[in-house]
Amino acid sequence: MRKPIIAGNWKMYKLLADAVDTALALKPLVANATHCEVVIAPVFTALKTVADRLEGSNIGVASQDCATQNSFGALTGEVAPAMLKDVGCKYAIIGHSERRQLFGETDGSVNLKTKAALEAGLKAIVCVGESLAERESGNAENIVGGQLSAGLSGLTLDEMNRIIIAYEPVWAIGTGKTATPAQAQEMHSHIRSLVGKDHGNDVAASVRILYGGSVKPENIGELMSQPDVDGALVGGASLDADSFAKIVNYK
Ligand code: 13P
Fold first, then answer.
1. What percent of the chain has pLDDT over 90?
2. Domain ranges (residues) in the chain
3. What pairing do the DSSP bridges indicate for beta strands 163-167 and 208-212?
4. What is the pTM of this model?
5. Residues with CB under 6 A from ligand 1
6. What are the φ/ψ torsions at residue 158 (nearest 5 degrees)?
7. pLDDT in tens, 148-178
């Protein structure tokens, strides 16, 4: 049985006070959500305060990115996964399409970041997804497969057990255009079979695959009813505590 994960990616939104207010408003609204893991990913500057204020709750905190190494060094602007663990993070989102498109993230850096996050004791939420042009040209499965095998290359079985995959079709992010449940299921099932080929059937059966892209209270139920959809990575609809709580409490 795979325990679903509902994760909110707050992207570059919210000053500290707003981040804390939203996290504290969310806390009682999801306190009874034992059917899934609940995760929020505030900006770096809010991580410690939010994690401190959520201590003892059922909400875990994720970073939205991390450095490729844990050893300290002259790497201006970077934050090591060990530093994120140190301030209370339990997860790191890695390889989000916005980082790939806007900040030069590559499959190679995704792989290094994933290994570094796992080494620090974080769970890695590794994002993959195709663009609209890639889908329309019939290449979606190849693109996602390539991102997946490169991003997770060289991981041990033990490390794979702390991997979470997020499938986020770029054309569905922030566009209001959700993949249909059937499209999500098709790609999730493809991803699971690729994980099976690369890392074995046990890992494939247990790895959680989240869907992301215009997830809202109105469509979460149908998405979650698909057999290979194990949760969601939510952007816009996670910024408001009530709306995110409705998604968490989809059951
Ligand atoms: P939206 O839910 O705003 O489409 O964003 C999805 C996303 O990128 C989550 O990481």
1. 96
2. 5-248
3. parallel
4. 0.98
5. 9, 96, 168, 173-174, 212-215, 233-237
6. -60, -40
7. 999 999 999 999 999 999 999 999 988 888 8
